[in-house]
Automatic annotation (TrEMBL):
Domain HAMP: 177-229
UniProt catalytic activity: ATP + protein L-histidine = ADP + protein N-phospho-L-histidine
Primary location class: membrane
Assigned EC number: 2.7.13.3
Organism: Luteibacter pinisoli
Domain (Histidine kinase) ranges: 237-435
Keyword annotations of the record: ATP-binding, Cell inner membrane, Cell membrane, Kinase, Membrane, Nucleotide-binding, Phosphoprotein, Transferase, Transmembrane, Transmembrane helix, Two-component regulatory system
Protein name: histidine kinase
Domain of life: Bacteria
Length: 435
């Protein structure tokens, strides 16, 4: 049973590794930045409290020893970013609510001593603002107003953080690409591997694991190629060697007196000869890629083939041609088109040939018929050797079940592809995609 993956989960290995690495790096970097910022905040706060504690004690001592009429002139000199002094009782407020304000008040009390009768009140919550009331030695009230605010962050710090994020993302992308690229090459080589063409070996370099995988794949590819060549060679040899005894049997049958038995024997021999010829053709189709490509106009080639059919009265027509120059293997293409057109005529009553070019410039040739079509479940099976369909496409109508198999193998041998599909208005359409 195949397990369906969630729709949000990336499908490719590269995307999954990218998500894992990027999220992990972002989380680690964010945690590191947060911990450093928190540690910096704690350190700055501790330094600020220690500084405030000693500076406030010094400032109160200075103001206590100054004459009353000179104290106002000293207030601006003793003011800081987060606190300043006021002469007088200050504002009425509520009890302290924050732990930090109580800690500051306690530190000031410890620093100046109990003689100054330190009291504190909160006068504002948003933003937080509280006042510490003291009484100088001459009985004059003194108020310390505190406006706490977090330590300022350097303007260049977010920029550095963003640069780090970019560097991490680039490194993660390079790492993922470095890891998945050999896998992509391996997948591409596996898709390009064909029993009808000599495929290139993967380079056996890079990391040890990648080199071992490439070497194993190359060895597997060589073994598969040897097995397939042996199979095709055996098929070709058997089909070829059968031609001689079949020919002798046919000559002997022809020497017999004419009659129903002689006719049936000759018909069986003819069917055997056809099957042997198809077997030899199938074996030879594996080497269609050995033919040298020729620069030619495919439209003129197809038109000439269609006219040959029309000259002998076959119902083959042209629906549209894409002109231009392309590199084509003529013999292989002619054999493919002949097999496909013959099938269209035999099972569909007629054939309609057309060609066009895709956006990438690749040539596509279609052969359509108006027959009964093929069940959707059998579209892939009919391209297998010796596979026949029931109904209109059975043994009684002739054929050895190798026509489409030969066409498919020839197309693959020259780097192309053959696809079957049923037409919406009835019939079958065969699409040949040339490289």
């Amino acid at each position: 049973m195949t397990r369906r993956l969630p729709a949000w989960l990336p499908r490719s290995m590269a995307s999954r590794l990218s998500v894992i690495l990027i999220c992990g790096l972002l989380l680690a970097q964010g945690l590191t930045f947060g911990l450093l910022a928190y540690e910096r905040y704690q350190s700055a706060t501790m330094v600020m409290l220690n500084t405030l504690e000693h500076e406030v004690g010094t400032s109160v001592a200075i103001l206590d020893r100054l004459p009353a009429d000179e104290r106002a002139a000293w207030l601006p000199r003793l003011a800081r970013d987060n606190y300043h002094f006021l002469l007088g009782p200050g504002e009425a407020g509520a009890p302290l609510v924050s732990e930090r304000s109580r800690e500051v008040t306690q530190r000031i009390t410890n620093e100046v001593g109990a003689a100054y009768a330190v009291k504190a009140q909160t006068v504002s919550m948003k933003p937080e603002r509280y006042q510490v009331h003291l009484t100088l030695s001459d009985g004059a009230p003194l108020t310390l107003e505190v406006n706490p605010h977090p330590p300022a962050m350097a303007s260049w710090l977010p920029f550095v953080f963003m640069v780090q994020m970019v560097v991490l993302l680039v490194c993660a992308w390079l790492a993922v690409r470095f890891v998945t690229r050999p896998l992509a090459q391996l997948a591409g080589a596996a898709e390009a591997m064909s029993p009808t063409a000599d495929t290139r070996h993967l380079p056996e370099d890079g990391p040890t694991e990648v080199a071992q995988a490439a070497a194993a794949f190359n060895a597997m590819q060589d073994r598969i190629a040897v097995y397939l060549k042996e199979r095709l060679h055996i098929l070709a040899s058997i089909s070829h060697d059968l031609q001689t005894p079949i020919t002798r049997m046919r000559l002997r049958a022809e020497s017999l007196d004419a009659g129903p038995e002689s006719d049936r024997l000759l018909a069986d021999l003819a069917e055997m000869e056809h099957l042997v010829r198809e077997g030899v053709a199938y074996a030879r189709s594996a080497h269609g890629g050995d033919e040298a490509p020729v620069k030619m106009d495919p439209a003129a080639f197809i038109e000439s083939l269609v006219f040959d059919y029309q000259d002998v009265g076959q119902p083959v027509s042209l629906a549209g041609m894409a002109h231009g120059v392309a590199m084509v293997r003529p013999r292989a293409l002619r054999r493919v088109l002949t097999n496909v057109i013959d099938n269209a005529i035999k099972y569909g009553g007629s054939a309609e040939v057309a060609s066009c070019r895709g956006a990438d410039g690749a040539l596509s040739i279609t052969v359509s018929d108006s027959g009964p079509g093929i069940p959707e479940s059998e579209l892939e099976n009919v391209t297998q050797p010796f596979h026949r369909l029931e109904g209109s496409r059975n043994r009684d109508t002739g054929g050895a079940g190798l026509g489409l198999a030969i066409a498919v193998q020839l197309m693959r041998s020259i780097g192309g592809d053959l696809r079957l599909a049923n037409r919406e208005d009835g019939g079958l359409i065969v699409r040949l995609s040339l490289p």
